[in-house]
Amino acid sequence: MTTKNHTVNSQNQFQCLGVKFLTANRRATNVLMGMFAAVPLTLALPVEALQVQVTPASPRLGDTLSVVINLDNPESNSNPTVAIGAKTYPAFAIAPNQYRALIPTTPLEKAGIRKLKVAGDGQEQNVSVQIRDRTFPVQRINLPPGKAGLEATVLELNRVAAFKALQTPQKYWNGLFLKPNKGRLSTTYGVRRYYNGKFANDYYHRGIDYAGAAGSPVTAPAAGRVAMVGRVSQGFRVHGNVVGIDHGQGVTSIFMHLSRINVKEGDLVKAGQLIGAVGSTGASTGPHLHWGLYVNGQSIDPIPWFAKVVN
Ligand SMILES: [Zn+2]
Questions:
Q1: CA of 209 to the centre of ligand 1 (A)
Q2: 138-307 CATH fold
Q3: pTM for the full model?
């Protein structure tokens, strides 16, 4: 009898907290219920002060999690945050009383449950999300002894790292992302590698390649601010001639191996605007465009951004 009552209460309170739990997954739901049972204090929080929605409904490795947070309290001045383990991601305003944090997932991670701790307006809410596994293609590269390929210069490493770390509060992009080149997609996101038979633990293809002809247009996939322009002549030995676009709110795009650059740092570009041309500068075996899309510093799969609007 006691057990029965307890079960009923848990269910009622689970609904009252207002978690729109989109990962309709028995295992994840059980974990969430378990957490509630283990931390009864959570149940004493004011109802519906903090509402959380996570999309996509069934994410897999490489996907970007969008965590939309609605706050009831309009007097709040500080944005909510989303923490996973030791990492904390900022949420940015996307509408009145509505905020959104973007969480990257990558091929370097393991599939399974992520526990998101959402904090805002003095409230805290735990949400569990199940990340599905995904098989990424594998390449086997054989390099002659002593030939490790080109090494990046300190200058390009520092400039690129600073660019990818941008978390500009302004949101420049709107709607679906567009393909940045009309060429065939030649290498997909997330490809893993063996070098001379040894698996490269830290390597995955951090973007997608288009086999566009040398000189063919490279266009901005979404609006943004040109935050980085680098050239071989300045020391961009591996990236080659490169453009970095800041789309805002932790989303950045990098375009590598360009033969020509049509923009300068500080330019505001629109979706579809010409930014450069396909080339083979830097560490490249032939003309192609490498486009990397980054979310809070991590390379995620850009393809879903073509099909579904990330608000
Ligand atoms: Zn590439």
A1: 5
A2: Glucose Permease (Domain IIA) (2.70.70)
A3: 0.84
